[in-house]
Amino acid sequence: MLNVCVNGYGTIGKRVADAVSKHPKMKLLGVTKYTPDQDAKLAVMAGMKLFVPAESAKSFAAKGIEVSGSVEELVNMADIVVDASSDGNGVKNKQNIYLPKRKKAIFQGGEEASVGFSFNARCNFDLAAGKEYIRVVSCNTTSYCRIIKPIGENYRIKNIDALLIRRGADLNDAKGSALNAVDWKAKSHHADDVRSVIDVPISSIAFKVPHTHCHINSMRITFDGAAPKKDELYGLFKNERVAVLNTASTSSQIVEAARDTGLKRFDTFVPALLMNTFMSNGSDIFIAFAVPQESVVVAENIDAITSQSGILQKNDSMRMTDDILGITKIKSQLENMFS
Ligand code: NAD
What does the alpha-carbon distance between residue 322 and residue 58 come to, in Å, rounded to a whole number? Predict the structure, then answer.
């Protein structure tokens, strides 16, 4: 069994911890918390061992939260650390903890690309094998990669203009975009981020809007030669971690479908390709997709662990991860509901 720990039990960390604890080849040693709040109690209630900074142990004890040791002790025991800390803390943890201890770690998309090898299971699983430091790219980049890669394998992509409508905050956030404004960024970092995984000509602009459901992203792809027809996209994504929906017309419908089918935290783990947004003039296509920002990177975190450690080959790993998360069933239920 591979000993794994999760450093940072927030939106991403709690989901990755759940998935690791279900993996037949991994043991979740524990998770870390930096504040003695309700999430710390949730982790203990869920049967996980909690580790905290040594200097904070008293504040957890004062709130009656059982602690199993320090962050440092947990990292010492682990073969691999999944760092799910808030933006910018991962690189500090790398400098202060993982490098001195020569500990392998997996970081998240809020870190600069220089923190580690930029990873997407579908695109570069094999190249990540044995790397000391891996960065699972952001939720948007993960989704762009899952969609661009199969298209690029079958058609010659000349150019991509990407337009992102970003959710202002996660469901649990007290922060977020302004109530009465849409803000935007031309030449947003997303294009560079996609290029850190796939060599493709892409530029991007991002708008941030005040809602929580998902990111609604889109791209106009120009081709050198034939462009895919709408019908051809169904075959292209049949076996991919992408749900292909015909009739969804609001983000709330997709969230409600996730709630009605009983998915924990409404997590669908797959971007939804919105086929009723498809447009084409023959040499290019336009298509939009919804990104479940809180859950889409969970599968990649698990596959990054298997690639980094070498415990599974690509196809076995992706299949096992899909099983653990229920991805095949979720995809087929969504596709059926929005057929
Ligand atoms: P979050 O704020 O929900 O959770 C971060 C957790 O890290 C908190 O529990 C915090 O207490 C803890 N923490 C604070 N200091 C720490 C330290 N020094 N070391 C370890 N943990 C520490 O954040 P999140 O949304 O889970 O994001 C985590 C990472 O995942 C970021 O890089 C983010 O960009 C990326 N990401 C987030 C989303 C999303 O939609 N939330 C999607 C994809 C990727």
Answer: 40
